[in-house]
């Protein structure tokens, strides 16, 4: 039995256990979606649809007063892949699998979450979430970031504090510590702040630490009209032992960014009401000084326009966003359609 088969079998077994064990005590729902996405860059001479894929998701989610859990299995057809070998077989992966235990102690709420899940602060899904992903990633919903982790949460009043220990591989030989505070006020304002450092990297091998700090604010002016933004600070240290040779020989851990580098990205966005014509219209602009150090020949500024429309069980999201350069021809149009099945 292959490693992938074992993971999928375990996920299916866990799904069955959720159905049989908890369905009578809480709210259990099967979940399923079919998604398709395509992108077209006007910079390409042939103007063909690029990065087209079709996939399906199937799983289940359980919710109760003291326990939540979710499992999601993702499937791609054989033609999904970049090589002939990759296009010769189906792809099935355990996309999400987590359990969250909850306790109420007087005015405090505690929880312990463990498993594999996504962290994403983004509104339109194009910019932000500077606490986690690589800055060079850009595009429609490219900010998804999954990891194996353990998280302790504490909620009291308007404050929700989470401390996470997460890995960037399957053995916890590389990973990070992440602390996040989320405050929701009685008026329509939400603030988030987080700190992350790849502290686990240095526990077994020489490594360079990147300290990340990010803060986000969302303010709702009226129904369907809100402004939001996020700013991050990413500072990477230096270590003379960590170089191309030691990394190639697996003696040291590769740094997240160039040693001695500092980046201060931020973006601003506005969600605009459309009198019911659309379910979402977001405009966003991002600035990252010296972006060309991360992506060759890239401009410091970038923008995206995101339109969302729901039609029955389907939701379509269209993004129009800048490429590496702020030129009319360096624009990409991406469309994702998600159909929910139950």
Distance between the termini: 30 Å
- H/E topology pattern: HEEEEEEEEEEEHEEEEEE
Describe the strand arrangement of the main beta sheet, using strand numbers: 1-2-3-4-5-6-7-8-9-10-11-13-14-15-16-17
> What share of residues is helical?
under 10%
Number of strands: 17
Biggest sheet character:
16 strands, antiparallel, barrel
Class derived from helix and strand content: mainly beta
How many domain units?
2
Walk me through the structure:
It is built from two helices and 17 strands. The chain has 342 residues and is mostly beta strands. The protein folds into two domains: 79 residues, no CATH class; 173 residues, no CATH class. The radius of gyration is 21 Å and the shape is globular.
In short:
This protein is mainly beta. The protein has 2 helices and 17 strands.
Which short descriptors sum up this protein?
342 residues, mainly beta, 2 domains, 16-stranded antiparallel beta barrel, 2 helices, 7% helix, globular
Structural topology:
Elements: H1 3-22, E1 27-41, E2 50-63, E3 67-76, E4 91-105, E5 108-118, E6 146-156, E7 159-167, E8 175-184, E9 189-197, E10 210-222, E11 225-236, H2 244-248, E12 262-263, E13 266-271, E14 280-287, E15 301-311, E16 314-322, E17 331-341
Antiparallel strand pairs: 1-2, 1-17, 2-3, 3-4, 4-5, 5-6, 6-7, 7-8, 8-9, 9-10, 10-11, 11-12, 11-13, 13-14, 14-15, 15-16, 16-17
């Amino acid at each position: 039995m292959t490693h992938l088969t074992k993971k999928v079998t375990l996920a299916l077994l866990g799904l069955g256990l959720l159905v049989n064990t908890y369905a009578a005590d809480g709210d259990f729902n099967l979940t399923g979606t079919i998604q398709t996405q395509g992108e077209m860059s006007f910079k390409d001479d042939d103007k063909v649809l690029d990065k087209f894929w079709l996939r399906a998701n199937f799983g289940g989610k359980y919710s109760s007063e003291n326990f939540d859990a979710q499992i999601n299995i993702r499937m791609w057809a054989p033609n999904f892949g970049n090589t002939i070998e990759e296009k010769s077989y189906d792809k099935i992966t355990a996309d999400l699998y987590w359990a969250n235990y909850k306790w109420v102690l007087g005015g405090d709420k505690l929880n312990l979450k463990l498993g594999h899940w996504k962290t994403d602060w983004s509104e339109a899904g194009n910019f932000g979430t500077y606490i986690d992903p690589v800055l060079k990633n850009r595009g429609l919903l490219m900010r998804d970031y999954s990891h194996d982790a353990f998280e302790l949460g504490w909620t009291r009043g308007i404050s929700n504090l989470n401390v996470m220990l997460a890995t960037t591989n399957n053995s916890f030989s590389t990973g990070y510590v992440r602390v996040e505070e989320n405050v929701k006020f009685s008026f329509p304002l939400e603030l988030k702040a987080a700190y992350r450092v790849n502290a686990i990297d240095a526990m077994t091998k020489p490594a360079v630490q990147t300290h990340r700090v990010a803060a986000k604010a969302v303010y709702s002016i009226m129904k369907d009209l809100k402004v939001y933004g996020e700013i991050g600070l990413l500072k990477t240290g230096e270590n003379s032992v960590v170089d191309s040779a030691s990394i190639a020989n697996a003696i040291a851990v590769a740094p997240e960014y160039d040693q001695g580098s500092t980046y201060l990205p931020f973006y601003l966005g506005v969600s605009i009401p459309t009198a019911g014509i659309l379910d979402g219209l977001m405009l966003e602009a991002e600035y990252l000084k010296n972006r060309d150090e991360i992506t060759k020949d890239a401009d410091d500024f970038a923008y995206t326009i995101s339109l969302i429309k729901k039609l029955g069980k389907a939701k379509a999201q269209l993004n129009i966003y800048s490429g590496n350069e702020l030129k009319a021809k360096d624009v990409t149009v991406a469309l994702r359609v998600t159909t929910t099945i139950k």
